[in-house]
Aromatic/alkene/methane monooxygenase hydroxylase/oxygenase subunit alpha (Comamonas nitrativorans), 515 residues
Amino acid sequence: MDMKANKKLGLKERYNLMTRDLAWTPTYQAVKDVFPYMEYEGIKIHDWDKFEDPFRMTMDSYWKYQAEKERKLYAIIDAFTQNNGHLGVTDARYINTLKLFLTGVSPLEYMAHRGFAHVGRQYPGAGPRVACMMQSLDEIRHAQTQIHSLSNYNKHYNGFQNWRHQHDRVWYLSVPKSFFDDAVSAGPFEFIVAIGFAFEYVLTNLLFVPFISGAAYNGDMGAMAFGFSAQSDESRHMTLGLEIIKFILEQDPDNLPIVQAWLDKWFWRGYRVLTLVAMMMDYMLPKRVMSWKEAWEIYAEQNGAALFNDLARYGITVPKGWEQACKDKDHLSHQAWNVFYNYGAAAPFHTWAPSEKDMEWLSAKYPDTFDKYYRPLWTHYAKEQAEGKRFYNGTLPMLCQVCQVPMFFTEPDDPTKIAYRESEYQGVKYHCCSDGCKHIFDNEPEKYVQSWLPVHQIYQGNCFPEDVDPTQPDFNPLAEVLRWYKINQGQDNMDYADSPDKQNFETWRAQATGN
């Protein structure tokens, strides 16, 4: 009797059997009723089977792959915790970068999880649906591993305990929060372009690579471990986003202007979130890997140019605002840290003026701008502090209606002049920080007039605990806002030099080393 040997399935055949062959076409309900979000954005898809996931990962391989990474990651985290790894970092200034990361980035990972779970349900095509489901799982894993890795610091330092509460309330955290609120309230096609492009491509390279390298360089093996554990996932995420963009563009020529408008919008929105990363790299890391300017030139100008060259064959052009962003690289981090130094009494981490050694490094990295525009500023602040007059700004700044960053950005060709743009909608004036944000507002004013702006809300009396009586003669609005934020004044914030974190860290390390 002839016996036929079973043919071993190839990767593509196995992938199709495990994903696409599980799909079906609805018969007792209309397709548009089952997938109601597919038409209102104007995107036209003619053949969902044309989408190709280059990784072709099935669920059985996905779980094995991720389980192996978890095993290695938690072994490193446990070793770091048991050996008091927190005392091995350069100094306690570094710990403030972790506070910034936990409050500003980790909640975005969770929002990405929710967003991909939602849009995966909305796509009729099985290929994108499975890919989105896996990315949703990746994103919640990233949130969990980051929280677990950083929880060790919560045992020893102030300012980690209320990170989730603060993400929804603290003034500067409305910047990353509004970015994701904007994305998840869009349609599924805009969401995938927004997050696949702006979050995964623009932000990931400029956040994870310099930040995680900075963690390793400053002795933080815990943060380094979760960063490197996530990077293999991020490569899939970037690829998924770009493949979806190409797939949409290949399906119908009418999709091109819609996608181009989204790339213009989301490049600028992602770039504004990177303001926090820029100041972290140049001012918050005690030992720096590279400057913001160097990171921008490598991961944006070089990698971004390659991306847009690749998309040019579809008719895509460089996003609006690209030229201004490239000009801003000499100024962004200095201007941002100046704002946080001013408002250090209202931020949930410590701030400080750069030392003379820090300024020498900044001068070398920014030879055309630092000594001319920013060294005099920091020299003045240091002199004031030495005289016991450390400056804290007691007023609240105007915020941009779109990106929600305080209005401190300067004109592209004049770093001595603050940029202000104004739009009017239904008889009300709205303020924007740049041409990029004004263009976004003017295109969708009905969306951005709803922005929850922290400064406006504070002045309206909506950011105080319920037991507060603003009519009392001893009413202190800043103290009450901080209580609503759950920020412990002087412990979680203010200047680093007098902070409990600094004093405790130095005491603990002296005891551990016997010095």
